[in-house]
Amino acid sequence: EDLRMRPTWCHSVLQKRVNMSSKSRSTYNEDLALRMNDSMRDKSFGSRWVSSPQSAVQMTWALISCLLISWDLLTIPMEVFDDEDFTNFLRYVSFGSLSFWLLDMPLHFVFGVQRGGIVELRPQVLCKVYLRTWFPVDFLIISIDIAVILMEAFVDRSVGGALRSMRFLRSLRALRLIRLLRVAKLQRELSLLANRFLSTYVFMVMRIVAALM
């Protein structure tokens, strides 16, 4: 026997559609379509460059991001020690890290994201999402990194090393603590990797355990 909606239910749905404005009705129809489709694309020129969250490019990028964030967690607190060789090594690593994060900012416009069970691949939407979420933080961190690198170069070349006091250098390096704001990204990147390489059940268990902890 065929399943049919009761008359009262049909009337409720039809009344809702009638009361909607044209804009709300199009949004309502789009939401219904989103439930039936796995991803959202458009026909813009930039959509051809957007990669899925499960693509090899995004997986590799997420892995490098996790390594760099973990590196900052381990090494930034150690910069308070006056070990010149170790500090110089960290400085060279920071150049590579800065280059990576500079490239990471525009890549957010072509890296698809998963939102509410829907894979978002539309460049305009990705741009809005990034500008409203991580762009201010990324811009602040990168600006401070560049300022610190330039100031350290100026201090190194100062006449007679008048500015090379340990207290000044410690204060300068303390500005790098702002990088630890990226720790909030670590969970997102790890979730992306876990969703790709772990089974659904294992991933759900990990999320539950993380929430309980």
Architecture overview:
By secondary structure, the protein is mostly helical. The chain has helices spanning 7-19, 22-36, 56-75, 84-107, 123-132, 135-156, 166-174, 183-197, 200-212; strands at 39-40, 113-115, 118-120. It has a 3-stranded mixed β-sheet, with no helix packed on it. Helix 3 runs antiparallel to helix 8 (183-197) and helix 4 packs antiparallel against helix 6 (135-156). It is globular and about 55 Å long. The protein starts with 6 loop residues before the first helix and ends with a helix.
What is the β-strand count?
3
- Identify the quaternary structure here: single chain
Radius of gyration: 24 Å
β-strand amount: under 5%
Number of helices: 9
Helix content: 55-70%
What composes the largest sheet?
3 strands, mixed
Q: Mean pLDDT score, rounded?
A: 75
Give the neighbour order of strands across the main sheet. Answer: 1-3-2
SS-based class = mainly alpha
